[in-house]
Amino acid sequence: MSAVSDPGPGDPLRRLIKLLARLPGIGEKSAMRLALAIVRSNAEYTRALSEAISDVHEHLGLCSVCCDLAAAEVCSICLDARRDPTVICVVAQPQDRMALERAGVFRGRYHVLHGVLDPLAGVGPSELKLSELLARLEGRAGVEEIIVATSPNVEGDATALYVSKLLEPLGIAVTRIASGVAVGGELEYADMTTLHRALEDRRKI
Amino acid sequence: MSAVSDPGPGDPLRRLIKLLARLPGIGEKSAMRLALAIVRSNAEYTRALSEAISDVHEHLGLCSVCCDLAAAEVCSICLDARRDPTVICVVAQPQDRMALERAGVFRGRYHVLHGVLDPLAGVGPSELKLSELLARLEGRAGVEEIIVATSPNVEGDATALYVSKLLEPLGIAVTRIASGVAVGGELEYADMTTLHRALEDRRKI
Description:
Two copies of one chain form a homodimer. Chain A is α/β, with parallel strands linked by helices. Chain A has eight helices and six strands; from the N terminus they run αααββαβαβαβαβα. The first copy, chain A, has two domains: 12-59, Orthogonal Bundle (Helicase, Ruva Protein, domain 3), CATH 1.10.8.420; 80-204, Dna Topoisomerase Vi A Subunit, Chain: A, domain 2 (3-Layer(aba) Sandwich), CATH 3.40.1360.10. In chain A, strands 4-3-5-6 form a four-stranded parallel sheet. In chain A, strands 1-2 form a two-stranded antiparallel sheet. In chain A, strand 3, helix 5 (94-103) and strand 4 (108-112) form a beta-alpha-beta unit. In chain A, helix 1 (11-20) crosses helix 2. The termini of chain A are far apart. Chains A, B: One of its GO terms (molecular function) is DNA binding. Chains A, B: It comes from Enhygromyxa salina. Chains A, B: Keywords: DNA damage, DNA recombination, DNA repair, Metal-binding, Zinc, Zinc-finger.
């Protein structure tokens, strides 16, 4: 018998718990905790949250240039003239772009694929924003390097390889972010594949 | 630099992330993950979620009898004639009531205190639904036992003691849920206090 189907607080709370439990990483217990927190919060907060949720769906679309989530037709990064237009960093998801921005290590432009190649999950090239990337590059010159910053796993590497093959005709340098033992990480606890990669990609000091 | 203050996806998403991050147990990363999941979900889901959130605040109040969260003036359990009216289980929070219902081990009525005595946190008797409990018991006869099912910790025990003292004049039996080594739990890993309680409350086989 689940909290969702249990009698008591009545429909509104049960419905909210049910809906929250559908979010990723939110189990039934978390959904209940969140729902009760929302119930206890002041009206101003719940109104704001309720509005924000409908807002993101209504007002948030994809940037026509980089395919990142944007409130406008073109996102703030693509509009930022100070960003280097000669380098484009290709990421799988918006949160990857956010992570890079948080780190503040990249001053070029981005392109969000919204996924990685994953044949087993039925995700092929057509599911990703690859044609948009191609169009963007064919459109105007000036782009000298494409850095593929997909995660260093099978899907991420396959996607990186695919992108490099796809852009070969354009004669633009396609690079891949380095992977190896995480900075601050313990070699002792690094997994086999990471160590293998770390050795393979070793560089002169 | 935080994800919330980072540029990019624009205001709607940032605002949603900020609001979600205010929920208990939701850090910035989780808030971002949830917000992006909401963005990706279909319009029907976001509308439902948005409505459910405003609904709970508008339509959810406290049951006039047991003080549990209820969509109506009286909750479904208090209205359920099959529930034993002679036993009332006093719990701290709605989720405790839900947990007992999930277990399906109690067929009596409930009373939700909405907290436990915690002087350090400034929670005194007046902050709890104790007067409501007293009024409920003085109101009508027929209640033979009050089971205090607050958690077996300092605050929970203090609250249980307070309730028993409070109801002494009414001559109603006040009992406390048993506590000890959890069923299925390993004695080896039980903490000192639990073992102490388990020995103290030992019973004849």
